[in-house]
Amino acid sequence: MSNVRDRGVIDITLVEEGRFVLIILDDMEWKFSNRQEHGRILQDKINDYLNYIASGQAAEARPGLRPVIRVLAQHSYSRYCIDFLERVKAFVNNKDDICDIEWTHDPDCGPYEDGFSDDYVFDITKVYPRLKKNWAQNPLAEVSLMAATPDAPSYSEQMVMTRIMDSYIGLFVQDVGEVFTFISYDMLPDGVTVEQLQQAAFGNMIRDIHFRSCESKEPGIYGIIAGGNFEAESILLNDIWKAVSEKLGDDVAITIPTKDVVFYTKAGDKKLRRKMMKMAEELFLSNQKETPFLVFSKDVFIYSRENGMNLLS
Fold it and tell me: Which has the least CB within 10 A, 2, 199, 248, 249?
C-alpha cells in the first residue's frame, strides 16, 4: 500500500456521506528534527491530490461528489503540523475552493492525552552562541546572512540577534537532541532577556565545548578543533586566543573560511600569514561552490595581546 512518500498515486479512496474522500496515509513522526522535511513531503503529496482534483479526474471517477483530502496520520500531530495543515487549508479555500481538507490521527498514539505534542521546549542550559557573517552591503543598517546561497530563504526577522564587530551577527541555537535550532523571540519564555540568553549561551559553550589546537599541513599554521559544530565561535572567546598568543610569543592572525575550520598563525610572520590566507581562500572558494552552507567568511582577525580581538580592515 502506498503512503505519503509515494508521489503520483492516491493512497486510499472511499465514498462517505456524499463525499469522495482521498486519503493520504502519513506514517511519519512529527519530530522536531524532521518537521521541515516532513512538511515538504506532505505538501508534495497534497499537491498531487490537488492536481488530481483540478484536472477533473476526481469528478470523472465520482461524478457529483464533493472531493475531500483527508490526512490520516499514524503518529501524534505536533503544533507545527497543525499550523502547517491550517495554512494549507486556508490556501485551498481562498484560492478555488475545489475541495475540503481535513485531518485525523490515531487517538492511541503518543503519550499525550489529547493526541497532540509540543515540538519545542525551551531549555536555557542547552543554548549556545552562533556567529554569522553579515553579508549586507551596509552591515550597520541591514542584515543578510545568506550571501553564499542567494536563492535560499532568508533568516526570520524574529531571530534573536546581537551585533559583533560591526559586520558579524551573533545568534543563538538550542540543542534539541538531533539538531540545533535557532532561537527566535517568540521561543523565549516570559522574563528571559537577550542579555540573560547571551550570558547563559557563553557559559554553556565554555562548560560543554572542548576547544583544542592542532597542526595543519603547513608548518607554523595551526587550527582549532571543537567537534565540527563550534569552531567558528572560538573567535568569541578571548581566553583561547590569549593562551595561543602566549604559546606563539606573538599576536595571532586568524582566518575562518568555513564554520568548522579555523586557521591561525603568528601575526608578525608575513610569509606564514600569506600562506594561511591562501589556504583559507582556496577552502572558502571550494566550499562556496560545493557546500555553501559551510561558508563563513574571507576576513582576517587579529588577536592583539594589548587590544584583544579585532577584525583586520
Answer: 249
CA angle 157-163-167, nearest 5°?
100
C-alpha cell of 56?
A: 477533473
> What's the CA gap between 236 and 256, in Å, rounded?
12
- Separation CA 45–CA 5 (nearest Å): 7
Distance in angstroms (rounded) separating the CA atoms of residues 171 and 214: 27
- pLDDT digit string, tens, across residues 101-136: 999 865 555 444 445 555 678 899 999 999 999 988
Cell of 225: 578543533
Report the percentage of the chain scoring pLDDT > 70.
91
**pTM to 2 decimals?**
0.66
The position carrying cell 464533493 is: 66
Residue 136 phi/psi, 5-degree rounding, is -65, 150
- Given a contact cutoff of 8 angstroms between Cβ atoms, the answer to whether 279 and 218 are in contact is yes
Q: Which of 269, 233, 231 is nearest to 250 (CA)?
A: 269
Task: Report the alpha-carbon distance of residue 143 to residue 133 in Å, rounded.
Answer: 9
